[in-house]
Amino acid sequence: MSVLVLVLAVCAACCLGFGFVLQQNAAERAPLGDFLSPRLLLDLARMPSWLAGTGLMVAGLVLGALALGGGELSLVEPLLATNLLFALALSRIRTKQPLGRQGWAGLALLAGGVSAFILAGEPRGGSAVTDPVRHWLIVGVMLGLALLLTLWAGRVRLTWGPALLALAAGLVYGVQDALTRVSGRRFTSGGPAELLTGWQPYAVVVLGITGLLLVQSAFETAPLRRSLPALTAAQPLAGIACGVGFLGDRLHTDAGALAWEAGGLAAIVAGIVLLGLHPAMPQGAGTGTGESGREPALERG
């Protein structure tokens, strides 16, 4: 594993984690009538804290793209999942909450899971799948599932809506990372002309805006702990599926390696859930249920 890829991926995770916290702090003050509407992004753009968070998120995306340019998707995605550690670190500074057993357990599971998956699988490059049917099938399944989750979230937005939107955004971002990797390959092989004549870079932009709207709608309607774990868990799983499915990423597939890889992914998800539910994570402005306190306004919207 390249040290540069490791540093870039961890720096990207840091920017993303800090950016998500700042974005959610701003989004919870946005009008709830803008739920899943492009107007939400226009309203948020007037808030300095949201702009700062978005700037960090963009920096994280750029660093992540650079990491993807030098490493395989199946390697970079688990490292990007550590953004939750940085989100928790910033939240702890704001809330003064100690890590406690839950925090340390989540940290150990997430770090151990990432290490186990990478060491057992040893992700490495290979020949990308040229069959367009397989390519479109995997992308279609991911985006189709994201659409279904979004439609479902619109029906249950006061209960499971934020988690469902975050899951959808994670799937969208996983596909975006895969297409970012494809775009990087096109640029490397033929320069700007080769890059701009393909559909992938334009899809990256569209998916980025779509994911941003989904994430901000999730942040708007519930505390960070209700959405960020789902987002952080879904993105690497979707990215790894795309990497192995059509980008040519290769992992060790003997019985022992597969067991460690599966265990590593399970530990990553468990660690994300524990950290995401940690008391240090923002609870929202409301009281009692931990919601934002704006349910009646949402029901009328």
UniProtKB/TrEMBL annotation:
Key words, A-Z: Membrane, Transmembrane, Transmembrane helix
Transmembrane segments: 50-69, 103-121, 133-153, 160-179, 199-215, 227-246, 258-277
Protein name per the record: DMT family transporter
Organism of derivation: Streptomyces salinarius
